[in-house]
Amino acid sequence: MDKKNGIIDWPTFIGAFVLLLSVTVPLILFPKQGEAVLSMMNTFVTGNFGVLYLVFGLGTLIFLIYVAFSKYGKIQMGKDIKPEFSNFSWAAMLFCAGIGSSVLYWGTIEWAYYYTSPPLGVEPNSTEAIQWASSYGIFHWGPVAWAIYCLPALPIAYFYYVRKKPVLKISEACRPLIGKRADGPLGKVIDILFIFGLLGGAGTTLALGTPLIAAGLNNMFGWEETLSLKTYILVICTVIFAISAYSGLKKGIRVLSDVNLWLTFLLLGFVLIVGPTVFLTETTINSIGLIADNFFHMATWTEPFNNMGPFEKTSFPEYWTVFYWAWWLVYAPFIGLFIAKISRGRTVKQMILGTILYGTLGCVLYFGLLGNYGLYLELSGQFSVVDVLNNEGAPAAIMGTLEQLPLDWIVIPVFIVLAIIFLATTFDSGSYILAAVVQNYVEDEPVKWNRLFWAFALSFLPLILMYIGGLSSLQTASIIGGFPLLIIMTMLAISFIKAADHDMLMAKKKKEQKKAS
Ligand code: NM2
């Protein structure tokens, strides 16, 4: 541990903050032009490099499956120790950490976007579009997504438990590849880009989640959904978290996470029972089959012939699949740290298969129940989600869907409490890791003022994004933030293999020496 330079790693701290300001200040000063520039950047990156994100996503899944079943799969995170948590707690923690308020949002409404603007050249609002509508959401929250989450967990857990070197910096996890340069400018650049990515991803999350909560409060109390209401919501979520962090209530957020897990079970179970149970289960199973059948096609669909001959351009891959992979990417190193931490005693194979299977399963439940309930309302003619989506926007359509449930006056508050807790936990874990990365060493926990600083910094970008408005601006935050992560994640994967190979070779040599002597 580098104690001689003081606790705060100022170059990384200032570098990351300046990068944040250099993005946010121009957006505040010139919102109109800002929106145009964001949309240009979005089109440029997704249009020219979209294929990289897709290749990266599929490549990650294939790589991890190979690792799981190769000699690396047998590596245990800490020799001969029993896994610290039961499978159930491990899966629950993994899921809660990886998922935030966005699953409430997209789980309920994603299908409606795909129904009206479907992928794969399908006719909008057609019977075929219905099938893809209920499947594509699950795909975007499925095995590729969770593989992206799992990748950084491998090197990090390896250093934690096998080499017994706790890493809280991404640059540190790249050390086997970049050597001493991890301590120099290259290491700082990696950490700054990671922070930048996380700020972008959290920006997307918070700028989506806040209007959802505002819509819920509007539904419950009739409050107008103004920008100031949304600002209050962001501030209150930060304060809830700040109080629990500052008063040393370490358990606070843990308790909130548990509450969230049970409320989720309650909500989803309720929808399954009082909703159209048979429709929900049949549609979900049908979607799983459809995805299984078309997995590679979906993962590689780049819409190559857009606007050529008879082909019309939909930009579906750029708008959705690329955006999603980018969004999972920016969160990945940070969730990777968490997955690593809870995986003591597990083997690499268990970590990989567990993350992909349990993570996907959790998302299938949300999308299968909440999303397909909305689809049911639409198809049965009971309530047109699509109309409300087109006329009043997604938060209103989500509330409209929930209003159709019996006891909606309880369901909506539960849903909103879930979203608020999810937002507070995003602030909690996000600020923890941002603060840790800008410190030279961490004693027990990152310094408090540092943590609070990043908690407030986390709300800059979403505030501005909400002010500018538009789904595409929100998506751009993750897409741009995710771009450097494509390289950093590849470095992490190579680091893991290099470190494991090196240690295996050493172990073999040692054994041979012992035999010889
Ligand atoms: N992911 C899962 O906003 C959230 O729910 C946090 C978002 C990457 C799409 C994660």
UniProtKB/TrEMBL annotation:
InterPro entries xref list: BCCT_transptr
Main location: membrane
Subcellular location(s) per record: Cell membrane
Segments traversing the membrane: 12-30, 50-69, 90-109, 144-162, 189-217, 229-249, 261-280, 322-340, 352-375, 409-437, 449-470, 476-500
Keywords (A to Z) from UniProt: Cell membrane, Membrane, Transmembrane, Transmembrane helix, Transport
Topological category with respect to the lipid bilayer: Multi-pass membrane protein
Ranges in a coiled coil: none
PANTHER family associated with the record: HIGH-AFFINITY CHOLINE TRANSPORT PROTEIN, HIGH-AFFINITY CHOLINE TRANSPORT PROTEIN-RELATED
Family: Belongs to the BCCT transporter (TC 2.A.15) family.
Protein name: BCCT family transporter
Species for this entry: Pseudalkalibacillus berkeleyi
